[in-house]
Structure formats: C-alpha cells, structure tokens
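Fig. S4 source data, part A: sequence.
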Amino acid sequence: MTETLAFTLDLEHVQGYEFRLKFDWPNLPDLLLDEPAPLGQNHGPNASRLLAAAVANCLSASLLFCLSKAHAAPRGMRTAVTGRLARNDKGRLRIDGLEVAITLDDAPETPARFERCAGLFEDYCVVTQSVRQGIPVRVKILNSAGETLFQD
C-alpha cells in the first residue's frame, strides 16, 4: 500500500457488557454497544452485528456510487445481511460467513451500465475486501499511567 490513513474510535465501559462508542467525528452521536443475552442485556448492537452492518453498508454505498456515476442510480435500495456464527475446533464462536442481498427498487434502465457496476463495485468496498483478505490486528493492554501491561 502506498497511502495510509488512520482513525481512532474510543470505547468507554458503562456497565455490565455495555460500552459507549465515541466516534472521531464530533457531529456524530455516541453509540451504545452491548452483548446479547444471557451475557449482556441487548441494549445495543454487538461487534458481530456491527461488522455485518459495516460490510452491508460498504457494499451498498459502493454499488450506489457506481450506479450514480453511470447515471443509472435506482430510486431506492434496501440491503439485508445475514451473519452465520459457528464454533471453531476449540469451541469458540466465530463469524462463519456473511450473506448480503441488495434489492434495487427499480430495474436498471441501462443494463450495460448496471452490468459494468455489478462487476466493479465489490472491488471498491473497503470493508468487504479487507474482511475477505484478513485484517492484521495488534493488541496491547495499558494501565492508567499508559504503561504497557501486555502486547501480542
């Protein structure tokens, strides 16, 4: 990669398994995250749902961008994403797959432009292509003084 951009999101523990997510854009409201019962209280989406939503949103926006540039934008669209969870060989739950269905409210008036976009839009979806390839994640644990307690 030749260009690297960065962003930072902050999570603050509220109670139980609830966390308040603060975005790096000041005009965005905080988002409450939680785990499903019986662990949490379902007061907000959990990480698996956010990942599925991110993939679905990125694909939808990418398709809409391409269709708009091709002057073939639909009057509306809806996207459904289904996430499958399965246990790995250690018995730990993992996201086993995501199925995304994008529904256009009207048929494309220019089939050739639609077919071109259908062949391109996934490649421009930052989130989907990153998830498909695997994202390196480095983890460290700090104390309140900023000293590293653990680093993988």
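Fig. S4 source data, part B ends here. The beta strands are 10-15, 18-22, 31-33, 77-87, 93-104, 140-142, 148-151.
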